Amino acid sequence: MDFSQVSWPEIGQATLDTLDMLGLSALFTFLVGLPLGIVLYLTSKGALLQNRPFYAAVSLVINVLRSFPFVILMIAVIPLTRLLVGTSLGVRGSIPPLVIAAAPFFARLVETSLREVDRGVIEAAQSMGASYRQIVWKVLLPESLPGLLAGITITTVTLVSYTAMSGLIGGGGLGDLAIRYGYQRFEKEVMIVTVVILIALVQILQMIGDKLVQRFSRR
Amino acid sequence: MIRLEGITKHYDTGSRRVTALSGIDLAVAKGEIFGVIGHSGAGKSTLLRSINLLERPTSGRVIVDGTDLTALGTKQLQEQRRKIGMIFQHFNLLSSATVEDNIAFPLKLAKTPKADIRRKVSELLELTGLTEHRFKYPSQLSGGQKQRVGIARALAADPQVLLCDEATSALDPQTTNSILSLLLDINERFGLTIVLITHEMHVIRSICDRVAVIHEGTLVEQGRVVDVFLKPQHPVTLEFVEQVSDPVELPPAADLAARLLKITFLGERTYEPILSKAVQATGVTFSILQGTISKLKQVPYGQLVVKLEGDGAAIERTIETLRADGLDVEVA
Ligand SMILES: Nc1ncnc2c1ncn2[C@@H]1O[C@H](COP(=O)(O)OP(=O)(O)OP(=O)(O)O)[C@@H](O)[C@H]1O
Ligand SMILES: [Mg+2]
């Protein structure tokens, strides 16, 4: 094994690209997934704004998106990606498929965390004259914060592996590097280095997430 | 202060229809502590929750402080609910907020200025004896302390009515009593109208002025606690009274030379030697067969079953003397 042949600057650039992809896709995933999850929760059976048909429709779309394997989804949405960001390549081209894959997943995690909030606490807020908006912002979100943080952690970690997969369609970043060097040119050293970096990344994210969850747990 | 008119509530669960309340009429006066007692599933919570429309009745009107809540839109209802505080069996505090922030919560909902919030919260911490716990989270408190936070929170918006849903059912007897005296204190100090529901007669006896007994969704008896407690009419009421005191029952008459009486004392008279004075004057003898002396809210009361023996005419005179002294006397 000869690591001297490895092009470190290229690895550095790929790492930055991966972080770039990860950061942007995570940001958009949360921006889309959080409201979606809240709406799912609010319209679900027995909740404040129960709406069966609406819930069923949104739920179906989410289930469909979630049952696509990511590699297939990535290719299937290429036309939409071009429409949204002008290209299907590079960091930019990888964001839409990442968000489309991860946001429904995150929305479900949000829905599940909100369900954990004690119904009695919501009732207490209602009895004090809280509006629906206040119940969401001042009761549901603060009360489910540990669960939401855990959901954010899981989603971000999932996104790490998705970003690596998006290398398959020229998404750039560490996955791209691993495929081009490791798979196509049999330079297994590059493959090993990229895998080690990805493992380290996941470890760090999980650690930060766990710390935050612990910090905000009050039960 | 509160008027319920013809409140009926059905729950449709699949094919079955459950009638939780049927045709409830109730009036609670300003400043009184009104208790509703009933067995599990009788409809107590449903009744209480219909007062602030957490549960909207299928039919009937809810009038609080002159406003018909059932006729209001969502926004106005939210406004009116601020005048009605509520505390719960399981406290229902925000687990993510400190004691202080829990108490401040209704004020923040009403967008009260920060300085006012701070002043009000300090006052309430003082009132409920929680000042040293102000920075703790609910998970760090005992049940009694949590309920105190619940009470402080319910009082923060200066409500005129306080609804208590089994507020002491999750607490031990000693803590129950301390919470009850806090409620009584608040009632006396601020003239707050309190409606509480419970399945424990002890709670009713300790602090309520009037009581209603609910059974299978209907009110089967209501009146002043003293009357309901000392002369229960409905079998369900009797069951509840027996929770806190052995029934003082008048056995059937035994022989002619003796009469059995059930005497009820109320108020300060309970401690006066009325009975012994009466028998001294008439020369009959008495023996106590059964009896109880206790308190209703702060009013002492006693019930005795006694056997009077002696001359027939003297016995009659004794009974008359007792009645003339204002005691309630039943003769077997
Ligand atoms: N959301 C609901 N859906 C269907 N039935 C309900 C619902 N809430 C209450 N009920 C029914 O209404 C009846 C009265 O319930 P309620 O909770 O008012 O009783 P309760 O007197 O408060 O009892 P407990 O002492 O156990 O709290 C019960 O038969 C209950 O099963
Ligand atoms: Mg109940």
From TrEMBL, chain A:
**By what name is this protein known?**
Metal ABC transporter permease
In terms of Pfam families, this protein maps to: BPD_transp_1
Name the residues that span the membrane.
22-42, 54-78, 90-110, 148-170, 190-209
Can you give the residue ranges of the ABC transmembrane type-1 domain?
A: 15-209
Q: What is its main location?
A: membrane
Q: Is the keyword Zinc-finger assigned to this protein? A: no
Compartments, record wording:
Cell membrane
Task: Output the SUPFAM superfamilies linked to this UniProt entry.
Answer: MetI-like
From which source organism is this entry?
Answer: Gordoniibacillus kamchatkensis
Report keywords, A-Z.
Cell membrane, Membrane, Transmembrane, Transmembrane helix, Transport
Domain of life of the source: Bacteria
Matching CDD domains, A to Z? TM_PBP2
Protein topology in the membrane:
Multi-pass membrane protein
Q: Does the keyword Transmembrane apply?
A: yes
Q: Which family does it belong to?
A: Belongs to the binding-protein-dependent transport system permease family.
From TrEMBL, chain B:
**What is the protein name given in its UniProt record?**
Methionine ABC transporter ATP-binding protein
Give every ABC transporter domain span.
Answer: 2-241
UniProt keyword Iron-sulfur present: no
Alphabetically sorted, this entry's keywords are: Amino-acid transport, ATP-binding, Cell membrane, Membrane, Nucleotide-binding, Translocase, Transport
**Sorted alphabetically, which InterPro entries does this protein's record hold?**
AAA+_ATPase (IPR003593), ABC_transporter-like_ATP-bd (IPR003439), ABC_transporter-like_CS (IPR017871), ACT-like_dom_sf (IPR045865), MetN_ABC (IPR041701), MetN_ABC_transporter-like (IPR050086), NIL_domain (IPR018449), P-loop_NTPase (IPR027417)
Give the highest taxon in the source lineage: Bacteria
**The organism of origin for this protein:** Gordoniibacillus kamchatkensis
From which residue to which does the signal peptide run?
A: none
SMART domains linked = AAA, NIL
- Please provide, alphabetically and separated by semicolons, the GO molecular function terms listed in this UniProt record: ATP binding
Q: Which PANTHER family match?
A: AMINO ACID IMPORT ATP-BINDING PROTEIN (PTHR43166), METHIONINE IMPORT ATP-BINDING PROTEIN METN (PTHR43166:SF30)
